[in-house]
Design a protein that fits this description.
This protein is mostly helical and 118 residues long. It has five helices and three strands, in the order βααββααα.
C-alpha cells in the first residue's frame, strides 16, 4: 500500500521522536483539522497527548497517516473502506512500515556518508 510510488511528493520524515500536529500536517500534506478527524476515525493513529491535550505524533503515526492519505486521496477509498483495509492489513502494514523506515534510515546514512567523504 505504501509503495515508493505513492506519496512520492511528500518530504522525508526527519529523525525525530515526536512531531507536533503542524509538523505532521506539513509532512503529510493534510490540514490539522483533518488529522484530528482521522485520529477519531482510525484507531491506528495514536498520538501521545501531553499538557493541554496537545498531540505529539511518532514516526509510525506519520507512516499510518500517509497510508490513510494514499488510500483516501489516491486510491479513492471511503473512510469506512480505508478503515477496513487497514484493519485487515495490520500485519502486512507493520512489515511495510518497517521496510519504509529501513529505507529512510538507509537514505539518511548514505547522505551522512556523502558528507563525511567530502
Amino acid at each position: 500500500m505504501l509503495e515508493p510510488g505513492n506519496n512520492s511528493k511528500l518530504p522525508p520524515i526527519p529523525g525525530k521522536r515526536y512531531f507536533t500536529i503542524g509538523e505532521v500536517s506539513a509532512l503529510c500534506a493534510v490540514k490539522p483539522h483533518v488529522l484530528r478527524y482521522w485520529g477519531q476515525e482510525f484507531p491506528q493513529i495514536n498520538p501521545v497527548k501531553r499538557r493541554g491535550n496537545r498531540r505529539y505524533y511518532r514516526p509510525q503515526d506519520i507512516l499510518v497517516i500517509r497510508q490513510i492519505r494514499s488510500l483516501l486521496y489516491e486510491e479513492g477509498f471511503t473512510i469506512g473502506g480505508a478503515r477496513q483495509r487497514l484493519m485487515g492489513n495490520e500485519a502486512r502494514s507493520d512489515v511495510s512500515q518497517s521496510q519504509q523506515i529501513i529505507r529512510q534510515i538507509r537514505t539518511e546514512l548514505e547522505d551522512i556518508l556523502k558528507i563525511l567523504r567530502r
